[in-house]
Design goal:
The chain contains five helices and ten strands. It has about 240 residues and is an alpha/beta fold. Strands 1-7-8 form a three-stranded parallel sheet, covered by helices on one side. The chain has a three-stranded antiparallel sheet with strand order 2-3-4, with no helix packed on it. The longest helix has 20 residues.
Length: about 240
């Protein structure tokens, strides 16, 4: 209600780059005991590792200071501290995911979505984000009837093919606003005009520009002709 009369506010985005997190991970698709990401970066820790570490266990893990650039091994939580207050039990142990006395994983398929099949990625966006967008938009429009709702795809590095346009929920009052970066430039912080990458793989020479063009068109296209806007783009630069 504070912003409803501001002339420079035309709408709202529900969530920046939503991600499924652990939802949908199971023994047949990105197990909890595995590190799963499109590119190794930072401390390489699986969900199961993070549960143990947060409960006072120490673990030696590899560290990547840049995507695909290994640096060293490092001991995580060498002091053996727990993030939980004394007398408060870990929420996942409380719900039966693991045994905090024997420190063993009891339910590796705890986050499996009913009906999920091995090797098939669950479309988190359609199942979870679309209902959220509907509720979010309805709440906004109850206060600002003419506000635009900017929706963007669920970002799943494990399954980039799932980055699909969402449905038109608010005709005339919704904008598809995905993000776009030149992947190789983002990773290396160096622009190589002669090298590009898209869903077809690496492209060299004159084909590199075509790959970037295809990438932009892919994220901006919407089969239901919803207005589109690149919601985030930038010049990758690490600084000195």
């Amino acid at each position: 209600t504070v912003l409803k009369d501001e002339p420079n506010v035309i709408g709202f985005e529900p969530m920046n780059e939503p991600n499924a997190g652990w939802v949908g991970r199971w023994s047949g698709q990105a197990p909890l005991t595995d590190y799963e990401a499109g590119l190794p970066l930072g401390w390489i820790i699986s969900p199961w590792d993070s549960i143990l570490i947060s409960n006072g266990k120490s673990k030696r893990v590899p560290v990547f200071l840049a995507p695909m650039v290994y640096s060293h091994m490092e001991d995580i939580n060498p002091e053996g501290r727990s993030v939980w207050k004394q007398g408060v039990r870990d929420i996942w142990a409380e719900n039966g995911l693991w045994d905090d006395k024997t420190m063993t994983l009891l339910e590796p398929d705890f986050f499996k979505i009913p009906g999920a099949k091995k090797g098939a990625f669950e479309p988190h966006q359609q199942r979870y984000m679309v209902p959220f967008w509907e509720k979010f938009g309805a709440a906004i429009h109850a206060v600002m009837p003419d506000a635009f709702i900017f929706t963007g795809p669920t970002v799943e590095l494990e399954a980039p093919g799932s980055h699909q346009p969402g449905p038109v929920l608010f005709p005339g009052k919704q904008v598809w606003s995905p993000h776009w970066y030149d992947g190789l430039t983002l990773i290396s912080c160096r622009f190589r005009w002669w090298l590009g990458v898209d869903e077809k793989g690496l492209c060299l020479g004159p084909f590199a520009k075509a790959a970037r063009t295809r990438g932009i068109k892919a994220v901006m296209s919407h089969k239901e002709k919803m207005p589109s806007l690149i919601g985030e783009v930038g010049v990758p630069w690490m600084g000195a």
